[in-house]
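#struct-queue
[09:14] JT: dropping the first one here, sequence first, then the C-alpha cells:
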Amino acid sequence: MARKGHRPSQAPASRPRFYGRHAVLAALANPERNVRKIWGTREALGALDLPPVIPITYADVADLARLVPGDAPHQGLVAEVDPLEEIWLGDLLQQGADDKRPLVVLDQVTDPHNVGAVLRSAAAFDALGIVTQDRHAPPESGSLARSASGTLETVPWVRVVNLARALEEIAEAGFWRIGLTGHAKGTLAEVMGDARIALVLGAEGEGMRQNTEAHCDQLARLPISPKVESLNVSNAAAVALYAIAARG
C-alpha cells in the first residue's frame, strides 16, 4: 500500500460536488473515495445499487440544477464527496520502478477542464500518473471530474510544493524529462529515444516557466502545421502520450 499524506479536515462547504453519471459512478466505485451524500432523480437513483450508509435525496431536475454551476449537465445525479488523500511523489515513482509508463508533469496548468482532459488521456495511454503544483493547479471539482470522465478516480495525481525539486526527484528515479515547447529544435519523435519519459507541459499561452525548462533534460516540439500556432495543452498531452505509447 502506498504511503499517503493526509489533507487537513475539510469543512462541508469545501467538499466538491460531482455531477453526471461518469463522475458519480466512478466516485462510488473508488474505495479510496468517501461519498458523503447523493441527490438524484428517481429514475437515475433507481438504476443504482447504492450502499445504505450513503444519504440520498430525491430531487427533480430543477432542484439538481441549483446544486451545480449554471447549465452543468448533471444527468440526474449529484454527489458531495471528500477530496482524495494526497499521494507522495516518492511512492508513485516507486510503484512505477519496474515499468516504462510515462509520467505527466503540468507546470501551472490551472484550467480544470484541461487538467481533467489530461487525466483522461493519461488513463487512455496508461501513464503512471500526473504531477502538478499544489498552489497553481485546480482543486478537485465537478467540472474537473466531468472533464476527466471518471479517470480522476483511477489516475494517481501528485501535488507538490516545488516543481523544480520534484523534477529533480523524477530524474533520480530514472526518467528522461522532456519539455514540450514550440521553440524546440527537435520533434518529440526525434528526441525521446527508449528511456522512461516524464512529459512536461506548461500552461496554454505562457508555456513552461524558464526554471521548469531548465529542469528538463531535453526540449521537444510536436510537428504541427504552421497554419496553427499551438495546440491546447490537453490536446498536446494526448498526442504526445500516443507518440510515446506507439514508439514500440
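[09:21] JT: and here's the second one, same format:
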Amino acid sequence: MCLVPAVSDPSLGWEGVAERFAALRSGIGVDVVLRWAGHVRPGGAIVDIGCGTGFPIGRALSDAGFRMFGIDPSPTLLAAYRRNVPGALAAEEGVEVSRFFDRRFDGAVMVGLLFLLTEERQRQVLTRIADILHPGGQLLFSAPEQPCQWTDSLTGRVSRSLGLSEYRRILTEIGCPLVERYSDEGGNHYCHARRSDYRA
C-alpha cells in the first residue's frame, strides 16, 4: 500500500533532463559509498533508490560483489541503469509507490533524492526504507547538514534539507538510528544509519 499519494510527474523532473544528467555524472561520492558498503553484509542485497543510470554508484557496488536492485521512475535513466549494472534487477517506480521487489534488503542507498521531496514525504520515505531493511541493515542517504532550501539546477524544482538534527530525530524514531556521517570531495554530506529492532 502506498503511504503517500502519487505525484503528477513521478520522476520529479528527472525524465525531462535525463540525458543532461547522465552527461554530467562523475565519480564523486564513490569513495563514500564504498566506505559505507564495508558495513553491509558481504555479498548482500542492496537497493539503490533513485538509481539513475547506475554510474557511478550502482556499478561500483555491483563490482564490489553486492546483489543490486535499482528503482527509478525515469524510463530513460532506468534503461541506462540496466546497461550499466548487468545482472541487477530494476523497476520503473518512484520511491513513494515502490513495492521494493516485495523483499527486504541488507542495505539501501539513496543519493541525490531525499531532498527533492516535501518535508512530510521525506519522513514517510525514510519510514518505508527502515521497514524494508533487515535488522542490522545499513542505510546511506545524502542531504545537506544544515536546514535549507534551494532550487535544483537541472530540474528547476525546490529542494529542501531538514538538517542533521531533524534527520537524526526521525531516524531514531523509526528504529534506524544515525551511526556515522560522511562528506565527499564535492562537498556533499551523507547520513549512515543502521536498522535496529527498536521503535520509539
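[09:30] RK: nice, looked through the second one.
[09:31] RK: The radius of gyration is 15 Å.
[09:31] JT: good to know. Residues 1-7 have pLDDT under 50 and may be disordered.
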